[in-house]
Amino acid sequence: MELENMCETETEDDIITTGKYVIVKKLNFKKIYKVTSNGTLMLGKDLVEMHGIVGKRFWTTFEMIPINKGKRTYSLQEVLETESLNDLLNELPSGSDNRSIIDDGTSQKLSKEEIVQLQESGKSGKEIVGSLIENNKSFLDRTEYSQEKYLKKKEQKYFRYLTICKPSISSLHEVYFKLDHNKIGNLRMDSLAQLLSYSDVQANGLYMLYDSGSQGLPAAAMLNRIGSNTEGYLINLHPGNVPQAMLVHAMNFPKQQSDRLINVNIYSFLRLFYQGENAVLNNISKKVHNNWINKTKEGKSEKEGDDRVNHEISHIEETMDNKDTNLGNINETNEMPKEQSTDGSLKRKLDERESMEGTMSKKPRWLLETQHAVELVQNSIVRGLAIVAKEHPLNIVTALLPFLGASRPFVIYHIYREPLQETYMMLKQKQNVINLRLFSNFLRSYQVLPERTHPDILTSDTGGYLLTGYLVQ
């Protein structure tokens, strides 16, 4: 009986269900998609209805079937085999060179309208490409290599097969790095691998991460290494109101594993650790009280205090019993009630003020998460520290190094070298930091094909810089 339950648990992770994230792969193109019951996905100009993938296994291949003639709308049908265009090359002769071919745009006899009609008529990609080859005057004169490139180009345009892939750290990184590598802080795959290696992330233990905006990629990678059936924890410190956790959600971690990730604001964490809960709550209560009075008098929203106080206020608003009543709604009145105002108006405003002050007696969720993080660092030693910063990391390193255990490693990533150089010089003066190394990576991928092996033409020039070291007593 237990064996049957284990098998059911293992197969559940391999089944596509609503709410999960998947990677839709069409040849070399990949896109992240969250599964819904009646969801659709835009692939270029094609609209694909995705409800057909629910209940299927990951790595299943589907064919795009046209729904309405004249509209590029498709449904998905599971297939066991896909057609290949390589068969067309085996049936046709090829030329010895391309010297006689003139690219004047007149080689293709079919017009654009006729090609669109072929697509809308429901013909398969192989049939469409076969028609293009038949009506191309110069195709038979091309070399075999040139014909192969032509077919690959047409295959990307008319190929109608999708594969639903299971997300992984490498596949999610590939999607975002090709889409816009600035969104993940130019964190290349080799730099991410070294970040995990030098922070010594293992299954058990407490680890700390500061990430100022990488779509949750470092947190997802570290949490993936920690696993679910362990006692490890990851404290993810972030500077904003909420962390960037897109890629953490996209990994479809089970609840047991996602609970190992604790997201806290770095300013709230440091204030609570050094000042205590009463000082933090009193400070927030005073700020909220003054903010309410000023906004009611002026009749408009004003930002007061620094970003840290605004962060705490925003979390307090989330804990209010009536979620439709928040600071913005309370302060929509134009001015304070005057003497001619009715008693009901005065009572309503006083009730709103009392209800808002009453929220201070309840602990908001962000405070509970921050208290959990503080308890962890007080009761156990941080075994590894990783910092992925877009800002200058000097003050961040100074604030977080005291939480690191003795003889434990730390690693700092930055896209530019100069901030890490200044941090290196500061850490070099400390007597409890050893084995400091500042370096960069160079990664070049190669295309390896028969008689044509060369580096990829389009590649990233840098994967950022890493500063590593160890903290000792």
Automatic annotation (TrEMBL):
Keywords recorded for this protein, A-Z: Nucleus, tRNA processing
Keyword flag tRNA processing: yes
Domain of life: Eukaryota
Biased composition regions of type Basic and acidic residues, renumbered to the chain: 335-353
Protein name (record): tRNA (adenine(58)-N(1))-methyltransferase non-catalytic subunit TRM6
Biased composition range(s): Polar residues: 325-334
InterPro entries named among the record's database cross-references: TRM6
Organism: Xylocopa violacea
